[in-house]
Amino acid sequence: MTTDDTSLSPVRKLPTGIGSFDVIAKGGLPVNRTTLLSGTAGSGKTVFAVQFLAAGIQQFDEHAVFVTFEESASDIRTNMRSFGWDLAQWERDGKLAFVDASPDPHIEVIESGAFDLGALLARVQNAVKKVNAKRVSVDSLGAVFSQFSDQSVVRRELFRIAWALKSMGVTALLTAERTLDYGPVARFGIEEFIADNVMVLRNVLEDETRRRTIEILKFRGTDHQKGEVPFTILPGDGMVVIPLSAIQLKQKSSNVRTSSGNEELDKMCGGGFFRDSVILVSGATGTGKTLTVTQFLNGGAAVGEKCLLLAFEESREQLFRNAIGWGVDFEKLERDGMLRVICDYPEVATLEDWLLSIQKIVEEFKPSRVALDSLSALERVGTIKAFREFVIGFTSFIKHKEITGLFTSTTSSLMGGTSITEGHISTLTDSIILLRYVEMFGDMKRGITVLKMRGSAHDKGIREFNIDKDGMHLGRPFRNVTGILSGAPVHVSPADLERVWSQYDAEVSDRRRGSRESESGERRRGNERRGSAQS
Questions:
Q1: 442: left (phi > 0), else alpha (psi -120 to 50), else beta?
Q2: Among 62, 70, 177, 464, the one annotated catalytic
Q3: CA–CA separation, 346 and 387 (whole Å)
Q4: List 157, 191, 305, 313, catalytic entry
C-alpha cells in the first residue's frame, strides 16, 4: 500500500500583502483555492478584492485578473485611483486584465431557457492565460445571480465557477452580498458551502458610529485567527487590519528615569517617570491636567528630547496662549524642531483611523515623549470595546518604541470620583496621578497624589499645590483631612484625630495581646501532648 505524500503536506498560503491581514490569516489565503468574501453594502468588499490584486502586482510581481459583474471596468479604474492603484497602467503593462461582465443599463435581462456561464468562464480563462495570472477576483456573485429565481441553477453555476477557477491554477477571491451584518453569510444561503474559505466583512452601526470588522469563518485544512478584528480603509493605503493578536508583551523595561518637568513631582514619583512608562493624569476640569502636560513636554525639550502633543479638547491657539501664561513658549519649541502639536476634534475620524494616523506621525517625527490630552474626548467617538482596543494598541506601540507617554482623563464630577475612562485603562498604565479639588473652610484648594507607580517607591501622601504664572508648585501634605479621593473631603480636628489614633492603637494592642495569648496556649497544649506521649 502506497501513501500519497501530497495529501499529508500542509496547505500553502499566498501572502495577500494587505496591511496586517496576513497576521490574522496566519500567512495569507490558501493557494489555488477559492475564498468567499461576504459583506453588507459599504463594508469594503470591492476595495479588498482590488487590493488583493494590487498588492500581488506591486509586492510580489504576480499578475492578476479582475472579473466584474456589477461596476463597469471604467468606474473601478476611476474609483481606485484614490488608493494610488493605477489599474490602467498595469493593463498596458500586461500585468492586469479586466473581464467586464457588468450589466448594460440599456438592455433588459429576461430569464428564459437554461442559463450557462460557459462563455464567460472561457473569457476568464483566456484572460488568465494572456497575463499569466496567479490571482483572480470576482465581484460580485449576487449581481449575476440575483436575476434568477431557480436556486438549483444558482448552485450549479456557483459550483462551476469554483471548479473552473481551481482548474486554472489561480488563487481566487469571490465577493458576495448579505443583507444583515449578523445574519445569513450570503444572499442565497449556499455560497459558503461552495467556497473553500469564507470571510465576512461587517460595517456595524453602534451608538451612531460605524465600525468595520473582518472575520474569517473558515479556512479548510489550515489555521486562522478566530473572531472579529477591526479594520479601516484609508486613502493611499486601502484596507488596513488592526489585530490585537499582533501585539506581544515583549516590551523592553528601562530603569532610566525621565523628568516630569516638575522637580517636586519627580520627588513624589521616586525620582521621575521611567523612560518607557505610560502615565495617566486624572482630574476634573481646571485641576491642572493640561499644565501637567505642558510641564512634561517642556521638561523633555529642555534636555533635547523631541515631544509630540495630541490635543483633542483645545485649539492650537488656546494651548499656545495657556503655555505662554505658564512661561513655556510652544511656538519656539516648534520652530526649534523639538515639538509637534496635532489639534483636532476626535469626531473627524474613527478610533482605528486615529490609531494608524498617530502611528504614522510617531514613525515620521520620532519623538521621545508623547502626550495625549485627553483620552476622555476620544472615548466618545467609539464603542467601549473600540476605545479599549485603541488604548491597548497605542500603549503597546509607544512602549515598543521606548517612548514616555502621558495621558489625561477627565473625571465625571468636579470633586473627583471615578471616571469611565479610568476604569478601562487604569490597568494598562504604569503610573496614575490624581488631581483633586479640596474644599477647606470655604476655600477651594487643589490636591495631588501618586496613586500608582509600577516598579518604584513613591510618596503616598496627598499634597496641596497651587498654580501661578510659573506653573505648578507643590506644598505640604494635607493634614487632618479625610475623604479627598472619594470627592467628599472632611476636616478632622486634632482632638478627634488623636482620639481616632488612640482607639486604633488600642485595637492593635488588643489584637497583638490576643495573638500572644493564643500562641502561648497553643505551645502549652503542645507540651502537654508531647508529655502524654512520652509517658
A1: left
A2: 70
A3: 12
A4: 313
Region of poorest pLDDT, from 29-43, 112-126, 466-480? 112-126
Q: Which residues pair with residue 369 across a beta bridge? A: 307, 404
Cα–Cα nearest to 355, from 318, 395, 324: 395
Residues 6+ apart with CB under 8 A from 247: 392, 393, 396
**CA-based nearest residue to 230, from 40, 14, 43, 421:** 43
Residue type, 114: A
The rounded distance, in Å, linking the Cα atoms of 230 and 491 is 50
Q: How many helices (H) and strands (E) does the chain have?
A: 18, 24
Q: Is 313 a catalytic residue?
A: yes
Predicted confidence at residue 532, as pLDDT, reads: 62
- The most distant pair of C-alpha atoms in the chain lies apart, rounded to whole Å, by 115
pLDDT at 449 over 90: yes
For residue 476, give the nearest of 440, 432, 431, 430 by alpha carbon.
Answer: 440
Kindly report the pTM of this predicted structure. 0.80
Q: Is 195 helix (H, G, I), strand (E, B) or coil?
A: coil
- The per-residue pLDDT for 354 is 94
Per-residue pLDDT tens over the stretch 278-297: 999 999 888 999 999 999 99
**b/e map of 307-330 (b: 16 or more CB within 10 Å)?**
bbbbbbbbeeeebbeebeebebeb
DSSP string, 386-405: HHHHHHHHHHHHHHHTT-EE
pLDDT for the residue 293: 97
Ordered structural domains, the chain, with CATH: 10-246 (3.40.50.300), 257-491 (3.40.50.300)
Determine whether 206 is an active site residue.
Answer: no
